[in-house]
Amino acid sequence: MNCSALLHMLIFSSVMGFCETNEKQATRQSTGLHQLNRKNSTRHRLKRGWIWTQFFVQEEVPAPQVIGQLKSDSDRGDNSIKYILTGEGAGELFHINEYTGKIQTLKRLDREEKAFYLLRGQAIDRRSNQPIEPESEFIIKVQDTNDNMPQFINEPYVASIPEMCPVGTTVVQVTATDADDPLYGNNAKLIYSVLQGEPYFSVEPKTGFVVTSWPNMDREAQESYQVIVQVKDMMGLSGGHSATTTVTVSLSDVNDNGPAFHHNLFTFAVAESAPVGTTVGRIMADDADVGVNARMNYSLEEAEGSDTFQIHTDPVTQEGVIVLAKPLDYETKRRFVMAAEAINDHIDTRFLSYNEFRDRTTLKIFVKDVDEPPVFLAQEYEWKIQENMAAGTTVGIVSARDWDVVNNPVRYYIDKGSDMKKEFRIDPDNGTITIVKALDRETSAWHNLTITAKETKQNNLFSSVLVFIKVLDVNDNAPQFLQSYHPFICEGVQSGELVQVISAVDQDDPPEGHHFYFSMVPEKHINPNFTLRDNQDNTASILTRRSSFTRQDRTQYLLPIVIMDSGSPALTSTPTLTIGVCSCNPNGHCPAGGVEAFALSMGLSIHTLIGILVSLLTLTEQLH
Ligand SMILES: *[C@@H]1O[C@H](CO)[C@@H](O)[C@H](O)[C@H]1NC(C)=O
Ligand SMILES: *[C@@H]1O[C@H](CO)[C@@H](O)[C@H](O)[C@H]1NC(C)=O
Ligand SMILES: *[C@@H]1O[C@H](CO)[C@@H](O)[C@H](O)[C@H]1NC(C)=O
Ligand SMILES: *[C@@H]1O[C@H](CO)[C@@H](O)[C@H](O)[C@H]1NC(C)=O
Ligand SMILES: CC(=O)N[C@H]1CO[C@H](CO)[C@@H](O)[C@@H]1O
To answer: Which cell locations does it reside in (predicted)?
Structure first.
């Protein structure tokens, strides 16, 4: 009760309605201010006459607005008391009627600008000019009205979450602020709600956390969402202010799709002539995922001939590139059928089973025929033919074929350069090679022909083959002296002395090598002048059989010698050795050469002389 005595003022709130509702809050507010001792007594007092040290004024209400009244207990209503107002805003914002003590606003107030004003009131006796009451301090609180809209901060909101994430996954927190009094009423009590984006997203009303509310959100179905979140003050009750913001949510990919071939059969064709490494074709398994989750490994199933092809992944397109790994031959295999498989490179069994990350398709690869040149049955031919065979004898037969399905007939030719002497002929139709004339091994032991086979239709494709013809030896050559010998004997030579060692040659080429046999021409009488000794090594030695050869007696002797080869049948020749007689130097050297000297002295040519001598000899033999 003493508190009211101290104050001596009656304060009438001009706005009773709202004071009632804000009473409690006002009580709390005032405790820290310059205050009188009141507490529960105040309530009692309030109930009696609204004596209070705190006025309330509604913000944003146009002036003049009656706030309240100061009144002294001793005021009898005779205008003897003068009320004076001082302090913040006195006279500027607040006016007091000096007679009645009524206080009213001069201007519209804004709580968000200044929430309260500290003022002092005085009551003075007009006559004595003395204060009737002690000066009293009080405050005018500006009462909040909901004159501010909530506002989102930190915009724009962009978030990414993995698809298929569980319900309740946090997307982002949206935040709004409100300039109104957070402690007074609900003017700044904000509530969030989703205007657009349900049922996939929800927002926690008080915190603004946007979370997922839909299981199995599929990026492949929808990749991004525009969630519109609304914030409302006044606890979301009607009549409040609101604002919206947009949250852009994108779903990031997870591997929740396996590869899928859109065709269960892929058909390709490749030319049989295609080189190894040729790209035969491309297959594609689709995968709704992106990036790493759409990466593909391709493989070919083991099947007959499947190793003729290889498959690898195009790193850019993720296609399976089928490449030729082995040469093809249309005539051998015209069609390949095999299965191909695509499997994701990065498998995530959280979303699909292992087998759902793979798919199969069938490949059919047809080999296209290409017109190819004829092919000889042998890479080369080597034949042998004996020399001296009759013209028309067959040496051998070449054969070439066009393996193409059309199987064009071929014709055969001998390349002219390989048979300059035109010794061979080929039958153009059946490839039979014959000789045009007898061959002589001793002229040419090899005939190496180039034979061309040419298709008679279409592109006249051709190919060639080498034919080696070896001419086999026949013993058709008689042995001869290795060289022309000019032996001589000195007058007075002894019996048994070596006159000449002779040797022989033969153009034939017996496989086992040459073997020559030497002998004297068989006669009734043994030659009294010379002997022959076969040395068994393809040489023979001619020896004197007697002494006392003189030039007076004879200047030369003719000695026919039989040489036989080892052929079958054997061939024999009988060349004649002419042995001169010379009057030698003491050192056994014949200065002039026996035969020459003789021939010149006779005035005859040596050939004539030999001719005469041979006739004489023959005559002599016949006479015997
Ligand atoms: C104020 O009054 C209430 C009931 O009227 C009472 O419960 C409370 O204890 C009182 N407080 C003080 C500080 O006297
Ligand atoms: C795909 O191929 C790559 C490279 O050959 C290999 O490392 C990876 O293990 C393969 N993935 C699967 C699932 O086979
Ligand atoms: C090849 O053809 C010729 C001429 O028509 C014929 O004389 C010869 O007998 C044929 N040879 C073969 C092996 O068919
Ligand atoms: C023919 O071929 C044979 C065997 O290759 C060879 O020895 C010979 O010298 C060749 N002859 C010619 C004239 O090319
Ligand atoms: C066969 C032969 O030539 N005999 C001759 C041997 O020598 C004597 C003497 O010179 C000749 O009279 C032979 O004719």
So the answer is: Cell membrane
From atom 1 of ligand 1, which residue's Cα is the shortest distance away?
Answer: 40
pLDDT over 70 for what percent of the chain? Answer: 86
Index of the ligand 5 atom closest to the CA of residue 527: 1
Query: What pTM did the predictor assign?
Result: 0.52
Nearest residue CA, atom 8 of ligand 5?
529
Ligand in nearest proximity to the CA of 433 = 3
Ligand minimally distant from the alpha carbon of residue 380: 4
Pair type for strands 488-490 and 576-582: parallel
Q: Tell me the per-residue pLDDT of 195-245, one tens digit each, with 9 for 90 and over.
A: 999 999 999 999 999 999 999 899 999 999 999 999 999 888 888 899 999
Q: What is the dihedral of CA 381, 382, 384, 387, to 10 degrees?
A: 90
Please name the helix (run of DSSP H) or strand (run of DSSP E) that holds residue 170, with its range, or none: strand 170-173
Pocket test for ligand 2, best of 255, 295, 296, 297 (most atoms within 8 A of CB): 297
Would you say the CB of residue 557 lies under 6 angstroms from ligand 5? Answer: yes
Please give the domain boundaries of the chain with CATH numbers for all domains: 3-39+47-143 (2.60.40.60), 151-252 (2.60.40.60), 261-368 (2.60.40.60), 375-472 (2.60.40.60), 480-611 (2.60.40.60)
Of all protein residues, the one whose alpha carbon is nearest to atom 9 of ligand 2 is 345
Residue 37 has pLDDT above 90, yes or no: no
For a mutational test of ligand 1's pocket, the pick from 28, 40, 47, i.e. the residue with the most ligand atoms closer than 8 A to its C-beta, is: 40
Rounded Cα gap, residues 132 and 74, in angstroms: 8
To the nearest whole number, what is the mean pLDDT of the chain?
85
Q: Which residues contact 112 (CB under 8 A, 6 or more apart)?
A: 59, 147, 148, 179, 180
DSSP for 330-397, written as a single string: TTT--EEEEEEEEEESS--TTTS-GGGGEEEEEEEEEEEP-----EESSSEEEEEEETTPPTT-EEEE
Six-digit token pair at 174?
């949206």
Q: Is the pLDDT of residue 596 over 90?
A: no
Distances (CA, A) of 324 to 116, 198, 272, 274, 470: 91, 55, 10, 8, 44
Q: Tell me the CA–centroid distance for residue 120 and ligand 1, in Å.
A: 29
Peptide bond into 569 cis (omega under 30): yes
- Evaluate whether 319 touches 306 at the Cβ level (below 8 Å): no
Q: Which of 287, 321, 345, 352 to mutate to test the pocket of ligand 2 (most atoms within 8 A of CB)?
A: 345
Q: Which residue CA neighbors atom 2 of ligand 1 most closely?
A: 40
Identify the burial level of 143 via C-beta atoms within 10 angstroms of its C-beta, where 0-12 means exposed, 13-18 middle and 19 or more buried: buried
Which tokens hold the place of 306? 């499947």
3-class DSSP state for residue 325?
coil
Which ligand has the nearest atom to the CA of 41?
1
> Is any ligand 4 atom within 6 A of the Cβ of residue 446?
yes
Distance from residue 347's CA to the centre of ligand 2 (Å): 10
Taking CA atoms only, the protein residue closest to ligand 1 atom 6 is: 40
- Site to substitute for ligand 5 among 526, 529, 556, 578, most atoms within 8 A of C-beta: 529
Q: Does residue 274 contact residue 372 with C-beta atoms inside 8 Å?
A: no
In this prediction, residue 593 carries a pLDDT of: 56
Q: Confirm if 178 and 188 have CB atoms less than 8 A apart.
A: yes
What is the CA angle 415-416-419, rounded to 5?
A: 100
| 464 CA to centre of own chain | 40
Give distance in angstroms: CA of 521 to centre of ligand 5.
15
